[in-house]
């Protein structure tokens, strides 16, 4: 295993696998969050299930955190090693978007996204851990009703916070626009599939971040619904 990570191909494959995992997680996360636009009850029920199910909490959640950390650490390692090897960044050398701003600055968009993830953890994950495992309240209730929906809406009251979310998801979209195709190329996808993958990647990198932005802006504009 150590030899796998020491090779350039091994590191790129590991980076691609962690990218696939995180892209899949984004779809699951969006599927839960988007229910808040049309059903407070359904969002509360799904949030309570995700927040109390042992498989999610003690198996999938640790894997997710590891995946996030691994992806960004591996990204920095690839960037540094390729710069050291030939003075050209991994992102600039990888994929078909050699001249794009995005491909040349994957490391910076990644840093902003990482900062956003930390903010997201501070906003939601750490308070949840406090309520459930320190205060010992697994009910998910406050004043006789589920608290998840109201806690989320409250976070989007601040225009500065919503602005930070919008900027972060725009950068996530740019990051995905290059990273989606690059991940498949690292796994050995053929040149014949390149155009199709680019089209799917473009749709994914626009639609997923846009829907997250819609959720944040909607709740900001409708704080009392």
Protein architecture, described:
InterPro entries: Cytochrome_b-558, SQR/QFR_C/D. It comes from Hyunsoonleella rubra. By secondary structure, the chain is mainly α. Helices cover 79% and strands 2% of the residues. It is built from 10 helices and 2 strands, in the order H-H-H-H-H-H-H-E-E-H-H-H. A two-stranded antiparallel sheet has the order 1-2. The termini are far apart. The model is unreliable at 89-99 (pLDDT under 50).
Which key features would you list for this structure?
mainly alpha, two-stranded antiparallel sheet, 2 strands, 79% helix, 2% strand, globular, Succinate dehydrogenase cytochrome b subunit, Cytochrome_b-558, transmembrane helix
Q: Termini separation (Å)?
A: 52 Å
- The strand order across the widest sheet is 1-2
Number of helices: 10
Give a quick account of the main beta sheet: strands, pairing sense, barrel closure.
Answer: 2 strands, antiparallel
Give average pLDDT, whole number.
85
Structural class: mainly alpha
Q: Strand share of the residues? A: under 5%
Number of strands: 2
The global form is: globular
Secondary structure elements and pairings:
Blueprint: H1 2-6, H2 8-33, H3 40-52, H4 54-86, H5 90-93, H6 101-104, H7 106-134, E1 141-142, E2 145-146, H8 148-155, H9 159-186, H10 194-221
